[in-house]
Amino acid sequence: MLYWLIQFSDTISVLNVFRYITFRTGGAVVTAIVFVFLFGPGTINLLRLMQGKGQPIRADGPQSHLVTKRGTPTMGGLMILAGLVVSTLLWANLSNRYVWIVLGVTLGFGLVGFYDDYLKVTKQTHDGFSGRLRLGIEIVIAAAACFALSQLGRPPFATSLTFPFFKELVVDLGWFFIAFGTFVIVGAGNAVNLTDGLDGLAIVPVMIASASFGAIAYLAGNAVFAEYLQIHYVAGTGELMVVCGAVFGAGLGFLWFNAPPASIFMGDTGSLALGGLLGAVAVATKHEIVLAVIGGLFVLEAVSVIVQVVSYKLTGKRVFKMAPIHHHFEQLGWTEPQIVIRFWIISVVLALIGLSTLKLR
Predict the structure, then answer these.
(1) pLDDT score at 57
(2) Euclidean distance between CA atoms 251 and 81, whole angstroms
(3) DSSP secondary structure letter of residue 233
(4) Which H/E stretch holds residue 170?
(5) Contact 23, 48 (CB under 8 A)
């Protein structure tokens, strides 16, 4: 919205700063933080009043959670999404279609997560609505976004897969690109969802990943920087840096209330939405494989669940004491702060490795 002020920059020269994505990204970060800080306490009190007993705690999870986390309200993702949307609408160039596609995925996944949280809270059960139905809706949303993304770029690059470390290796997936992109977006959404099991565990890696992809979007969307780094130029994606900045700011504000001991949980409302957003940005910028590196912690959490389920069904034995893997470390005697902070460190290291692929080609 503020981007349109550049129309008056010829008369008021100071308005020229709104042309710069970096300036507007900074504005998005600050706006999102302030928004969540201002409306966070009221939102938490309202959700606590409406939910009563708060988020139901898994009976088969760590027994300590039945005591330490009981009564804590969920759906905190509403705070993040509100700050993210308001900040994006205020600072982004709203004529950019990439912005609307990513917001569409974010809000679509957020609605799916919100309904799931609503059923859990009202029925006081850990089970939401049908897993197949939920997955089906996510697939439809992601597929629609990938189709729209395939129409934005220049063919055949718009439907191609690029590889880190190889500047010339590009594979045109054709229509299979939609299926591949859908897998990335849905997989990212559910991987972040599985990671959200301890206070502050998911939100900081999401912030780290969003900051990393904000930088990637800016560089990939700038012809000069893309040529210098020898990465593939995707016109228009630079504006996604503003969206990623809004995620970072909203996440930082939410962390104030989600830090141990959490006053509110993100819930599926936030984790699905934020994971879907990261997946959509990765597909838009042609850095899907890099997402698996930067978001390696999310991949690890998802793989631990898959391995646990497959192993138990085939052999009747469990590989981990409990899945996802953060619960495994709880069972080994690690304290919650130890797990959370060490996983944050892992996220930083993976982000640095992922960002290094921009130059090592």
Answers:
(1) 59
(2) 9
(3) -
(4) strand 166-172
(5) no
Q: Are strands 160-163 and 166-172 parallel, antiparallel or unpaired?
A: antiparallel
DSSP run (H or E) holding 90: helix 77-91
Tokens for 76, please give them: 């905190």
Predicted local distance difference test score (pLDDT) of residue 172: 93
Whole-angstrom distance, CA of residue 304 vs CA of residue 209 = 20
CA dihedral over 283, 194, 85, 28, signed as positive or negative: negative
Structure tokens given for 141 = 């949303």
Could you give the CA distance from residue 213 to residue 287 in angstroms, rounded to a whole number?
Answer: 9
* Alpha carbons 127 and 129: distance in angstroms, whole number: 7
Q: Tell me the backbone φ, ψ of residue 206, rounded to 5 degrees.
A: -65, -45
How many CB atoms neighbour CB 326 within 10 A?
26
- Measured in residues, the chain has a length of 361
Per-residue pLDDT at 11: 87
Residue pLDDT, tens place only, 219-278: 999 999 999 998 999 999 999 999 999 999 999 999 999 988 888 999 999 999 999 999
78-107 pLDDT per residue, tens: 999 999 999 999 999 999 999 999 999 999
CA 120/CA 273 separation, integer angstroms: 17
- The pLDDT score that the predictor gives to residue 360 is 79
CA atoms within 13 A on the CB side of 123: 11
Tokens 């939100």 correspond to 203
Distance of CA 303 to the CA centre of its chain: 18
The span from the CA of 94 to the CA of 186, in Å, is: 25
What is the predicted pLDDT for the residue at 149?
96
pLDDT of residue 248: 98
pLDDT, residue 54, reads 60
Cis amide prior to 324 (ω within 30 degrees):
yes
- How far, in Å, CA of 91 to CA of 89, rounded? 6
Amino acid occupying residue 205 = P
The number of angstroms, rounded, from the C-alpha of 137 to the middle of its chain's C-alpha atoms is 18
Consecutive H or E run containing 167: strand 166-172
**Burial class of residue 152, CB neighbours in 10 A (0-12, 13-18, 19+):** middle
User: Position 236: which residue type?
Assistant: G
Q: Which of 169, 180, 174, 157 is nearest to 288 (CA)?
A: 180
